[in-house]
Amino acid sequence: MTSDPVIKAVVWDIDNTLLNGVYLESPEQPPAADPVLAGVLMELAGRGILQALASRNPPEAADYVRSVTGARFAAAECGWESKAAAIGRIAAELDLPADAIAFVDDDMLERAEVAAALPDVLVLTPEDAAEAATWPQFSPAVVTAEARRRGELYAERRARQAAASAFGGGRDDFLRHVGTRIKISRARTADLPRLHELSVRTHQLNSAGEPVTEAELAGLVESAAYQVTTLRLADDFGDDGLVGAAIMTGNGAGEPVPFTAMVPLVMMSCRALGRGALDALLAWMCQAAAQAGATELAVPCLITDRNVPMRLALAAAGLRAEAGAVAPDGRAIFTRSLTGDLPALPEWASVEATPWQATP
Amino acid sequence: MAGDTMTSDPDDVATQLRQLLADVTGRPELVDVPASTPLFGGGVGLDSLAGTLLLRQIQRRYGVDVAAEDLNLDSLQTLGTLTAFIVDRLGTG
After folding, report:
1. B74: distance to nearest CA of chain A, Å?
2. What pLDDT was estimated at residue A199?
3. Identity of the residue in A113, A274, A325 whose CB atom sits nearest the CB atom of B47
4. So what's the pLDDT on residue A146?
5. CATH numbers and ranges of domains, chain B
6. Which of its termini does chain A have fewer beta carbons within 10 Å around, N or C?
7. A305 contacts in B (CB within 8 Å)?
8. Which residues of A touch B71 (CB under 8 A)?
């Protein structure tokens, strides 16, 4: 791999990124600066890396951020149009190519839009940015092995984005073109810490919306009544490892056939968004449940404005809820019949999971 | 909203939606997609990411929050159903 371009400017979002809250929600006393990110900003500025703001806020928000961070910003774009347009103007103003710019935003969709429109920009979550000061892109001189690996992950992602925006065909053609590999396996004890982490960190692609502890997961992995299934994702750009999982169980004692296969949790890292991984996992769940004798698959899903991507995947896999059937706990149960045609697994998915046995 | 792109004419909305679809999927050829082609699956291959970006653009442009109003997202079956859903909301709004 060629060396990754060095970052010369960082463009920061304001709400819930540089500030610990939303500027316009408390006009009398706007939120304080995030101490970690403000520290990173000053550290990077000290290395000569330019700092800039791109925010959906009135221009006063930039003045406020200047006053609470003490930072000097080389450019500030506050307004209501897209972040990609704002970053384009900042790049022009600072006379920098897109691959010399990093963008930090807490909102997954803002990040996705910038990544799609400006694939050369290094797009980071606030969590990424908190440790980015150690990455080679930001500090060519001081690099640990772990920091190098993290830096490589982002270089891989950027290379994948650039390839995607240059590719003419549909999504499946692209996934095939870049050698996408999906491996579906039964969860093992060694997977538990990562599964717990995914249950905490995934929001957009999480049906349950509740963290699961390692102890709870261990109990599920050992229980004959449950099957915990993992999904690993890789392609020619890199290996993302374990990015998703599903928990399946029957609907009660004895499992009279026919029965409904229940899915207390299905989750996927947003790293896997747009790469067919959740669709493949849902297809496998339908097929495994049908083979075990289930005639219906049921996924209770929390209805929030954050996990719309999960609902889109459920709809694409043919699951539907009863209209208006959102329970008092905020969930609706999405179901589909397992008779007739089932969603197909892509040919780049391999299955190592032992067949699901709904009953011990 | 007083922008000159606001319209509740079904043909205009369909044309704008085709352009949004082409933008969020990165596939310019989708500006010609037939109204009856399924958006999920084989036809257009709309996935979670592209679908979410599309809904977000629709909310920005028309002020219609499809995800909040359509639990099952059945309005995303085809370009025709999506157009009808939005025109209906614009007409009553």
Report:
1. 8
2. 92
3. A274
4. 55
5. 10-92 (1.10.1200.10)
6. C
7. 67-68
8. 303, 311, 321, 323-326, 332
* Amino acid at site A176: R
Chain A, nearest residue to B66 by Cα: A308
Closest residue, chain B, to A171 (C-alpha): B45
Instruction: Note whether B27 contacts A: Cβ–Cβ < 8 A.
Output: yes
Looking at residue A101, its pLDDT comes to 95
With cut-offs at 50, 70 and 90, classify the pLDDT of residue A165. Answer: confident
Q: What mean pLDDT is predicted for residues A250-268?
A: 82
ipTM: 0.89
Round to whole Å and give the CA distance between A143 and A256: 59
Please indicate if any CB of chain A lies within 8 Å of the CB of B1.
no
CA distance A84 to A108: 14
CB A267 within 8 A of CB A206: yes
Geometric angle at alpha carbon A84, from A80 and A88, rounded to 5°: 105
